[in-house]
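User: I'm putting together a teaching handout on how sequence relates to shape, and I'd like one worked example. Could you take (S)-ureidoglycine aminohydrolase cupin domain-containing protein from Flemingia macrophylla, show the sequence you're using, and then write out its predicted structure as tokens right after it?

Assistant: Happy to. First the sequence, then the structure tokens directly below it.
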Amino acid sequence: MANSNLSITIERNPSQSRLTELNIKCWPKWGCSPGKYQLKFDAEETCYLLKGKVKAYPKGSSEFVEFGAGDLVTIPRGMSCTWDVSVAVDKYYKFESNSSSSSSC
């Protein structure tokens, strides 16, 4: 059953110091071409889009959230949504885990 209280948060154009603090350059990268993707997030994901444009439609809602290059996006654990990608995506991403290890690259 979908939890309607889940929502995607977007931090538009975070500062370089914020990106450095998050150590995003050590995160894995992922990309996709334009198209529609059904996604389910079993863990909270934080991602930083280097390029791309996405409309994310949470399951069971006609509303959408739009984000793209330069945005830092947090998607909550348990969310199911459709990504309508109009411009190919290239992003850094990180899934939250219970380990408290800080990644160094």
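A couple of points you could highlight for students: The first helix runs from residue 16 to 22. The CA atoms of residues 56 and 79 lie 11 Å apart.
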